[in-house]
Write a structure and sequence with these properties.
There is one protein chain. This protein is α/β, with parallel strands linked by helices and about 140 residues long. It has a single domain, classed as Rossmann fold (3-Layer(aba) Sandwich), CATH 3.40.50. About 60% of the residues lie in helices and about 10% in strands. The protein contains 7 helices and 5 strands, in the order βααβααβααβαβ. The protein has a 5-stranded parallel β-sheet. Helix 7 links the parallel strand 4 and strand 5. Helix 5 packs across helix 6. The longest helix is centred in the N-terminal third of the chain and has 14 residues.
């Protein structure tokens, strides 16, 4: 199991993205071996918005969101009061944006690594969680 940030999913769905190939290749592995990918429900609007901003194509964004929702290995976690409070604490302690803090808090709560391309999540979370890029993730 691992928490996957929207940056990885977005890169895997935008073919001209710099990180398309390693993101897609890494995502194929959990799907193939039945491992669970954990994401907060926040990932859905983040993904849709990011894809349409990069491609200008709302239909591509809708297809990307549908693809993610249909991943058999996907576990969508609602942001309840408990996770929201933990994310707030993480955001303030690590000086992270709110959305980024949700992924870190979820990884901490579940005791699993975070897979991300986000430099701040990678650089600021030492001692709180283990964070990897798709290229370095087990």
């Amino acid at each position: 199991m691992r928490v996957v940030d929207a940056s990885v999913l977005t890169s895997a769905l935008v073919p001209n993205d710099l990180y398309y190939a390693p993101s897609r290749q890494w995502l194929d592995q959990p799907v193939a071996d039945g491992s669970q990918i954990i994401v907060p429900t926040l990932v859905i609007p983040e993904l849709g918005g990011a894809i349409v901003r990069r491609t200008g194509d709302p239909a591509a964004a809708a297809r990307g969101v549908l693809w993610v929702r249909r991943l058999s290995s996907l576990w969508l976690v609602a942001i309840d009061d408990s996770l929201g409070d933990e994310a707030t604490d993480v955001a303030m302690k690590l000086r992270l944006r709110g959305a980024d803090a949700v992924y870190v808090a979820l990884a901490r709560r579940e005791g699993v690594p975070l897979v991300t391309w986000d430099r701040e999540q990678l650089d600021r979370t030492h001692g709180i969680i283990v964070a990897h890029t798709p290229e370095t993730a087990p």
